[in-house]
Amino acid sequence: MATLPTTAEILLKDFGPRPAYPALDPLYGQTPDKLVKTHCCFCGVQCGIQLKVKNNQVIGFEPWEEFPVNKGKLCPKGIKRYVQNNHPDRLLHPLIRGEHGFVETSWDKAYERTTTAIQEIQSKYGKDAFAFLGGASMTNEKAYLNGKFARIALGTANIDYNGRLCMVSAGAANKMAFGVDRAANPWSDIPLAKALILAGTNIGECFPILTDYIWRARDNGAKIIVIDPRITPIGRTADLILPVKPGRDSALANGILHALIKEDLLDRDFIARHTTGFDKVEELVENYTPEKVEEISGVSRKSIYRAAEIWGEAPTAMLLHARGIEHHTKGVENVLSYINIVLGTGKIGRPGCGYGTITGQGNGQGGREHGQRCNQLPGGRDINHPGHRQEVSEYWGIPEAELPGQGLTACEIIDAIEAGKIKGLLSISFNPLVSIPDSNRTKKALDKLEFLGCIDFFLSETAQHADVVLAGSLQEEDEGTVTNGEGRCIRLKQSITPPGNAKVDWQIICDLGKRLGKEKYFDFKNPGEIFTELTGISANAPVDYSGMSYERLEKEMGLFWPCPSPNHPGTPRLFEGGKFFHPDQKAKFFGYEYRAPAEDVDADYPLFFTTGRVVSQYLSGTQTRRIGELVDQYPEPLCEIHPLMAAKLGVKDKMPVRVITRRGEMVVPAQVVTTIRPDTVFVPYHWAGKKAANQLTNRALDPISKIPEFKVCACRVEKV
Ligand code: SF4
Question: Residue 475 C-alpha to ligand 1 middle, in angstroms?
């Protein structure tokens, strides 16, 4: 058989039509040896799926209809996820950079090169000069292990994860308002709601199977309000669309709360008994008349009043939001301003009443709970809290003084590399070169590193810059747990073992820990032992998994935390009876004046530039850009532009346009659509190099969550 080009070769150099993609797997369609009940590897719905396995290869799938979240349904990514196995790009051996590029090497040499680099850099520049970046698609076990490895084996404060680009604004706001960072309700509550606000959440493309829950609510008579600068697919379900100007969300939320007050639609009894801080917020939003908010946000006063009426008059209601309001330099303020609407009307803690953030990544919830964030220790503990530090150091058996303090966040780590303060980086399942805003700067920063090590299963764009690549595992090659967007911890089963000479990720981390002289802390024989340690250390912590076991998770189709004892049923719905997680059991209101985005439109850059996902791609595309059928659905980024703006620029559908911001420019085909504001353009972010939307985005950070402002900056568009 002729040698086929790898998909990496095709994708990295090809900006034209994609060559035909032959069937890669001769086992496709054959009778499997076994069916493995596990979960999709992509978004935070974590749909149940049965993988068909033959000869240690995944050859297809069957629906898993008993799993309650998706009941057998899957989106295009879930249907095609099995194709990533046996891909010619799969890394089968560790790679080491030689004079002429990468060469395959032994594990011994790869580990030796990595640990020597760590030791040399740390002895020359200090412990914190070596950083670690993890991922929120990884299991809870790996998230826990990443944190332990960074703190004990590396002794660095500088560990963070790619959820910093994703859920952290919601997480910070949840802690501030409710005292806990988790969705308030199981998704089974959604169909019970009679009103839904979907703010900045493209559910149909980013969390596709949750669409079914929204439709069931609609079929039960719910009124649906969608707030977005684009009419995304879920907008077709809406009764009311509020097409907010990018970056104006807090003003709009203040305006809706103002209208609720004027229309006497608040639950004053709930506010008095279960919350604090409302008086100040009431005073603040007095100025946010719908007339004024119309001017700021571009949403008509009539629509603002209508939204308040729909929400306020409904007997039950839920608010769901996502990156659309979170990816801002005021992401935390935006989320808290929306939470004020929920608290002010007392619509929380009851069936069909509540709140949730749509997590972006497969383990977006669990990935942020077990200690791989720069400010966090296992069990959702605070790294700056003396009691929490003591508990963790005692459990680990190290002096508290040896536990590093708070380090830098993901974007700050890249900035510190650029500034020459961080000299070495180990990255696992994170592709910062594609994911972090202002990617031209990211590339220059990575080139300054004295050592870059990557643990991954495909050669991501970041891994292409590495000195050592450690061939890790795909989700189906390992086992463990993840926690989906509603807070349900579920069990992932190992379907196959890693091919060739690749290893499971947890083993690689443990091997490195042992080679760095910390054998006794990384003496795990399987993920089950890591989970036992994770659940044990979480006892009595803010995030308590201590009543969970693999057996229970399988038998009960997942468990919601808090789950503090083996007999505890878990906690699907939080805040019942108006009991919140602050010491006084009350929720807190926080009010904020509207402030403009870090970079607003002006005469030179008159259009808003915003980014997001498409249904057939996932994150930086490392996996989905290698799945031919998904590539065929959306082969390259397009620039959504309104017909009015297109006509002004003399641009027609599919014509190339140049999109320019203060950081870079890209040429992309126009997609002329009526479903976007005329003052806004949208480009999805799943591609690399000259196709990367993040060449253009702004790395300005939210002061609390340190999330970058992916969702708004200023651009101009030119006809090419
Ligand atoms: Fe389900 Fe999300 Fe996977 Fe689609 S991508 S099948 S919605 S888990």
Answer: 14
* Overall average pLDDT of the 359-381 stretch: 94
Considering only CA atoms, which residue is closest to atom 8 of ligand 1? Answer: 46
Nearest CA owner, ligand 1 atom 3:
78
Q: Which ligand 1 atom is at minimum distance from the Cα of 49?
A: 6
Is the per-residue pLDDT at 4 higher than 70?
A: no
Per-residue pLDDT for 486 more than 60? yes
* Distance in Å, CA 84 to ligand 1 centroid: 15
How close is the Cα of 176 to the center of ligand 1, in Å? 30
Atom of ligand 1 nearest to the CA of 39: 8
- Ligand 1 centre distance from Cα of residue 120 (Å): 43
The answer to whether residues 539 and 440 belong to one domain is: yes
283: pLDDT strictly greater than 60: yes
> CATH number for the domain including 662?
2.40.40.20
Question: Quick one: pLDDT band at residue 20, thresholds 50, 70, 90?
Answer: very low
Q: Exposed e or buried b for every residue in 38-70, given b needs 16+ CB within 10 A?
A: bbbbbbbbbbbbbbbbbeebbbbbebbeebebb
Is the domain of 172 the same as that of 158? Answer: no
SS3 700: strand
Q: How many CA atoms lie within 13 A of 229 on its CB side?
A: 27
| 56-105 per-position pLDDT tens digit | 999 999 999 999 999 999 999 999 888 888 889 999 999 999 999 999 99
Given a cut of 70, is residue 16 above it in pLDDT?
no
Cis upstream peptide for 562 (omega within 30°): yes
Q: CB–CB of 378/541 below 8 Å?
A: yes
Q: Is residue 601 part of a domain?
A: no
Q: In the chain, count of helices (H) and strands (E)?
A: 23, 30
Distance CA 390, CA 403 (A): 9
- pLDDT band at residue 25, thresholds of 50, 70 and 90? low
Which of 74, 234, 492 for a ligand 1 pocket mutation test, highest count of atoms within 8 Å of Cβ?
74
Q: Is residue 110 part of a domain?
A: yes
- Ligand 1 atom 6: the closest Cα is on which residue? 78
Kindly state whether residues 234 and 331 are assigned to the same domain.
yes
**Atom from ligand 1 closest to the CA of residue 209:** 7
Question: Containing domain of residue 700, as a range?
Answer: 607-719
Look-up: residue for tokens 């305006």?
Answer: 255
Tell me, yes or no, whether 173 and 158 share the same domain: no
Tell me, yes or no, whether 377 lies in a domain.
no
Give the Cα separation of 170 and 189 in Å (integer): 20
Q: Last residue of some domain: 86, 105, 128?
A: 86
- Out of 9-23, 318-332, 377-391, 686-700, pick the least confident: 9-23
76 and 100 assigned to the same domain:
no
% of the chain at pLDDT higher than 90:
91
Q: Does residue 321 lie within any of the structural domains?
A: yes
Question: Do 39 and 131 fall into the same domain?
Answer: no
Mutational pocket test of ligand 1: of 41, 45, 71, 137, the residue with most ligand atoms within 8 Å of the beta carbon: 45
> For the chain, what is the domain count?
4
CA 619–ligand 1 middle distance (angstroms): 13
Average pLDDT over residues 398-427: 98
Nearest CA to ligand 1 atom 1: 47
Specify the pTM: 0.94
pLDDT of residue 26: 58
- Whether residues 280 and 401 share a domain: the answer is no
Residues 147 and 178 placed together within one structural domain of the fold: no
Spell out which residues line ligand 1, taking CB within 6 angstroms.
Answer: 40, 42-43, 45-47, 70, 74-75, 77-78, 208-209
